Amino acid sequence: MADIKGSEVETTGKTAPGFAKSIKISTILPIVAAAGALIVNLGLPDSAEHPIAEHHYFAGALCVLLAFAGIAFITGIFSQKFRTVYQSKAPFYSGIILFLSLCDILTAKTALLPVLYFPSLDRVLGVLIEDFSFICKCLIYSLRLQFVGWLCGAFCGISTGVALGFIPQFKYWTYPLVRILGPIPSTAWFPLVLVSFPTVVSASTFLIALAVWFPTTVLTMNGINNIQNSYFEVAETMGASKTYVIFHVGIPAAMPHMFIGLFNGTCASFITLVTAEMIGAKCGIGWYINWQKEMMAYANVYAGLIVMSLICYCFITLLFYLRDKVLVWQKGVIKW
Amino acid sequence: MVEGGISISNIKKTFTNVQNETITALLNINLKIPTGSLTSLIGPSGCGKSTVLRLIAGLNHPDSGTLTLDGKQIEKPGSDRGFMFQQHTLFPWLTIRNNIAFSLKAQNIYKENASRVDEFIDLVGLKGFENYYPHQLSGGMCQRASLARAIVSHPKVLLLDEPFGALDAFTRMNMQDELLRIWKERNMTMIMVTHDVDEAIYVSDQIVVMSPRPGRIIKIVDVKLARPRARSSNDFLLYRSKILRLLNFGGTEIQPEFSI
Question: Nearest C-alpha of chain A: how many angstroms from B202?
Fold first, then answer.
């Protein structure tokens, strides 16, 4: 009897600290951070230098974050799977909340940063919420430009790169042209493009396509030049025609390089997009940022920047997703 | 009638190396390979044995002389001659199944022959690994897949360039048995380049012994042993010492022999 009791005590003794341990302190951190930020926001008085905010959006946002942190913590108690994922992310989320709180202190609470250029978070969030439909309109305009330009550029880039890699005659005539024209930043073409295209939209689309085209072309060609000769030879001995070899050996083998080219091109295309919109357009996120800057409405500028960064983030994420799908065979061959 | 007889006459082949010097890779090569036989080319590095194989495949062209398959001149690579490299050269972006199906798809005969892919996956013992990528398999398994890929479109001739050179000794002996089994089952002409004297004697009907600088044939040895051959029988060892002697003293004692 004594033995059994002893072992029972031991097992419960083991599970209790184990249970506490498995929750870990990190999952509480976001709650603490959000609550702290909320106390700072509500407890400290706003600086008199800032215009009085009509709505306390930041306090509202903190309440939402606090609620999310609470829900995540409770879910973590019951779901082991969720907890393991959340545990590693929690310190990062807490860091973001603390950073926002720091911004809050530096702007609205103490006005340590110049008030004109660093508006309070209440006002930035206010613009995002109150100007939402107008920003969306600009966003759609920019996205359309970006998508059409990017698709054209990527398609032309891959085609040119494949042709350069496989057709010596084409390379003889075209490669010097690519080398000379390619490195010029596509925004430098703006004066010329504006007069040669009928509309600003078509001109901007062309420039974005150009920005994607060059790195995609060069890296696709490089990718094809780096393919082991034995792949082509073995394909030939299996009775594959020249065209079949291009599409079923050349292009798949050059894919990893192609994606690097597309990434470089995508980054260049964002620069071109914003510049093009700032110079010639009458709508779009780049135009919005530039316009609001001239109006000295810096809260709107920040709102525009946030939306811009979201577009870029989503675009790159989409490209990563596509790469992971297409290049799934590389998993295990290279450091992923 | 099974086809796949190869005749090589008076082949000369030179290469230009990086230093712009002309190297004579092959000189006066004469060889008849009977339909359905298994021939090995053996010799030290640089004797041009791989070049002979590449010429038959149509990947390279001779400076002079003729190569014929069933009386027809060999001009370019074709699916009637399967080729298996020392490295497996499976396409890393295709699964094992799609790698094996490649030649059928390339010749646009996949739809009516889809079942053949499974048959060959079975033949080389890779059932259950169809959907793996090459890098997920061991070297031996990749080499099996490579073999299946080379023979799935029923070539008349299978050319093997040191096919088991990169494998460990046990896997290699295993693969030699597999190769013989497939050779008997499929009844095709096989020509294999090898460094391994035992391997050559174990599998071949005839062994072509070659010597470098310039690459030439010094002797063609017919192996008249019944299969399956015992690797340590007296007759086997006799062939072994004969070929080793040919290779070691080839330069001084043995006169080049150009007769067939």
Answer: 27
Choose among A237, A244, A333: nearest Cβ to B135.
Answer: A333
Tell me if B96 sits within 8 A of B149, measured CB to CB.
no
Task: Kindly report, residue by residue over B23-58, the tens digit of the pLDDT.
Answer: 888 888 888 888 888 999 998 888 888 888 989 988
Least Cα distance to B88 among B49, B154, B134, B55 occurs for B134
Q: Do A239 and B92 touch (CB under 8 A)?
A: no
Q: What is the DSSP letter of A334?
A: B
Rounded Cα distance between A68 and A109, Å, is 25
Q: What residues of B are in the A interface, CB distance below 8 Å?
A: 57-59, 76-79, 81-83, 85, 87, 89, 91-94, 102-103, 105-107, 133, 135-136, 149-150, 153, 159
Summarize chain A as % helix, strand, coil (round to 5).
80, 0, 15
Residue B95, min C-alpha distance to chain A (Å):
8
Domain boundaries, chain A: 14-127, 132-330
**Mean pLDDT for all residues in chain B:** 85
Q: Do A237 and B79 touch (CB under 8 A)?
A: yes
Q: Does the pLDDT of residue B254 top 80, yes or no? A: no
Angle (CA) A115-A118-A122 rounded to 5° is: 95
Q: Tell me whether residues A240 and B102 touch, CB distance under 8 A.
A: yes
Query: Between chains, do B91 and A249 touch, taking CB under 8 Å as contact?
Result: yes
Chain B residues close to A228, C-beta within 8 Å: 89
ipTM of predicted complex: 0.84
Reported as a single tens digit per residue, the pLDDT across A99-152 is 999 988 888 888 888 878 888 888 888 888 888 888 888 888 888 889 999 999
What structural domains does chain B harbor?
6-80+155-248 (3.40.50.300)
pLDDT (tens digit per residue) in A254-286: 999 999 999 999 999 988 888 888 877 778 888
The residue among A228, A236, A238, A324 with the most chain B CBs within 10 A of its CB, best to mutate, is A238
Q: Please determine, for residue A16, whether its predicted confidence score (pLDDT) is greater than 80.
A: no
User: pLDDT tens across B159-177, in order?
Assistant: 999 888 878 888 888 888 8
Helices (H) and strands (E) in chain A — how many of each?
A: 14, 0
Q: What's the rounded Cα separation, in Å, for the pair B171 and B196?
A: 14
| CATH class of residue range A132-330 | mainly alpha
Can you tell me the distance from the alpha carbon of B137 to that of B94, in angstroms, rounded to the nearest whole number? 13
To the nearest 10°, the Cα dihedral for A200, A202, A203, A209? Answer: 140
How many whole angstroms from its chain centre is CA A186?
22
